[in-house]
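We modelled the chain as a single entity of 133 amino acids. Its sequence is:
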Amino acid sequence: VFSFFLPEYAALGHIKAASLTSPEAQVLSGPKIINLVNGIISLVDLGLTECFGGFTERHLWDCYGLQPGGNYHNNADGKYRMGELSFSPSNPNDAAAVVDELALILTSGRLNQDSRSVIARVYVCAGNHADGL
């Protein structure tokens, strides 16, 4: 292990009881995990922002009265957003190609064929590619 973790570290509880090691758990804590999850949710829902636990230097939980899922994205001046996630498929009219592209990006191509078929059917049933995504 090349890092700042002790390779023999075992987190207390089930990991240690099973005689397993978990070097990365040496720097993890409940609050750090919760902050990571809050940041990921904020990034996906709102883009890169300081609002609602986003990945920025400071965190605003009030965010000037804005609510997740509200008119946040319709803010014309983009006052609270520093960036956003987006995806434009190469061929939005080919459901299988869209699912293959997403599988490569999100799962390194490990998504099984049954799951790809289910997702492709839902994509087609959505009516248009914007709703399908």
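As a brief sanity check on the tokenised model: The mean pLDDT is 81. Helices lie at 14-17, 30-46, 95-107, 113-125, 129-132.
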